[in-house]
Amino acid sequence: MYKILVSDAISDTGLTALYEHPNFAVDKKPGLPPEELKGIIGEYDALIVRSQTQVTEDILENADNLRVIARAGVGVDNIDIQAATKKGIIVINAPGANTISAAELTMAMMLSLARNIPAAHASTSEGKWERNKFKGVEMYEKTLGVIGMGKIGTEVANRALSFGMNILGYDPYLTEDRAHQMGISKASLDEIAQEADFITVHTPLIKETKGLINDEYLAKTKPGVRIINCARGGIIDENALVRALNSGQVAGAAIDVFETEPASNTELLEHPHVVVTPHLGASTVEAQEKVAHEVSEEIIDIFETQSIRHAVNMPQISGETQKKLQPYIDLAEQMGILAIQLLKQAPERVEISYAGEIAMESTDLLTRNILKGILTHHLGDTVNLINAHHLLKDQGVASNVSKNPKSKGFASYIEVTLHRGDNKANIGATILNGYGARIVKMNDYRVDVRPESNLLYIKHHDIPGMIGRVGSTLGDYDINIGTMQVGRADIGGEAIMVLTLDKKAEGDVLVGLKALKGLEDAQYLELPNEKVAVPN
Ligand SMILES: NC(=O)c1ccc[n+]([C@@H]2O[C@H](COP(=O)([O-])OP(=O)(O)OC[C@H]3O[C@@H](n4cnc5c(N)ncnc54)[C@H](O)[C@@H]3O)[C@@H](O)[C@H]2O)c1
Ligand SMILES: O=C(O)[C@H](O)COP(=O)(O)O
């Protein structure tokens, strides 16, 4: 039974899949103080949060069983991703599930600003009738600058177009073509400052966007500009905004998110030209059901089928790429497992190369599988795809990944080489169309071996009778040979044999083999059964 802790206010309807699943037990404890959360987090396999729970390194210190942190929403700035990654905890979110709600709130904020609705409401409900005081402006034919043209920025732009606004979009990923298709103009931050009557921000809060709208930027804006932030507190410097509001440079601001939450900057909160809401962008019935439903389904998938769709600390790959990589995923881990056994010691340097068609794909997932295979040998089950890169660095192991789209005799080819001092071990492998995975290189010798559970790697001199002596020694121990491959550098020189066996060859068997004339070394290489694909 997997234990799930829900530590923020999350929709029960959205959590139905988890409530109804026999393998999951859900504890709802919204609003837990940090020290209480730290005290109980060790009991749980997954944690579901919104933006309120601060998932700090300190709390994660006790999260010994935690495998997943699920953010029922988009922004993950309340989660220490680095600390989670170090502990091998997958962080997932629900991108897109609250996009429409956040875009609709942005439009509501823009309209509220343009028509002074909150202040007019307060005055009217007090019994006043101040028609002149609340004269607003039209949005029609005004220019809206959208900073961050991702999911929400795009929805906002589409809605603003229907209001007859001219849209200037700024986003490092926005192309001229895409802007043209949408009927908006691609602009720089400075162009937005100079031309926009309304500016709305829709970026994440990251190093580059912290204080993006500051004194310097506000000084460049069109006098009387109106500014909206329904993205993240901190993208706009609150004190700079107050200064610009006081000077009249900014005519009004509508703010849903704050540098610290709950919001405490009274100069901003009480400013007569400011509309504020308490981080309500995703607070609709629909968005809350969707985010909770999405993370519930994904948590079930992660625990039941190991499939991850929206990990924040894992490479995101498209369905099409996933399909292309799928056959290589198990093979990559097998290569790591075999390479580390061949090296017989911890590596100082790992080199991974991808050639041919596979080199044209995003291969980070394969690299993570290779590293997991290598590191598990010495570090055990603490290694997973999330922390593999991190643990490698932590162990002081240098790594290099190279890609060459030119084929090396196979449509796709992967090679892993481990180095320690003068010692090196390498494994080259491919997927043969219609024949499945093949190890085609071992320690620089060409071979053709199907990765199976029990492999025997023998280094010997290329002398007559070797194959027979190895075969009969294995027979003496009742070990059946599945396949046998021989490779040599030169006639009469060094050679290798790679055998697939029906059972393990350890202890006495290896001693017996090593005593054979001409045999230099015999190594049993094991691949865990569950990592061995069904032979085809
Ligand atoms: N108020 C709320 O309740 C609420 C609800 C949902 C989302 N959000 C927040 O809204 C923001 C946007 O969410 P989204 O789902 O659209 O995310 P998204 O990832 O789809 O879009 C973010 C965009 O910002 C762009 N960007 C990054 N750095 C930039 C920079 N320096 N300048 C300009 N653009 C930059 C990215 O390229 C991306 O296109 C996030 O901060 C999210 O946390 C708030
Ligand atoms: O990033 C988000 O998804 C929004 O800020 C919503 O946050 P919330 O889930 O705390 O409402």
CATH C-level of the largest domain? Alpha Beta
Q: From the 3D structure, determine the CATH topology of the largest domain.
A: Rossmann fold
Quote the distance from N terminus to C terminus: 35 Å
Overall, the morphology is: elongated
Instruction: Give the strand order, joined by hyphens, for the main sheet.
Output: 8-7-6-9-10-11-12
What percent strand? 15-25%
The class by helix and strand makeup works out as alpha/beta
Q: Quick one: biggest sheet? A: 7 strands, parallel
The percentage helix is 25-40%
Number of helices: 18
**Bound ligand species:** nicotinamide-adenine-dinucleotide, 3-phosphoglyceric acid
Task: Report the oligomer.
Answer: single chain
CATH architectural name of the largest domain? 3-Layer(aba) Sandwich
Radius of gyration from CA coordinates: 30 Å
Q: Output mean pLDDT.
A: 94
The figure for the number of domains is 4
List segments where confidence is low: pLDDT < 50 over at least 5 consecutive residues.
Answer: none
Give me the count of strands.
22
Q: What is the CATH homology-level superfamily of the largest domain?
A: NAD(P)-binding Rossmann-like Domain
Catalytic activity: (R)-2-hydroxyglutarate + NAD(+) = 2-oxoglutarate + NADH + H(+); (2R)-3-phosphoglycerate + NAD(+) = 3-phosphooxypyruvate + NADH + H(+)
GO biological process, one term: L-serine biosynthetic process
Keywords: Amino-acid biosynthesis, NAD, Oxidoreductase, Serine biosynthesis
Enzyme class: oxidoreductase
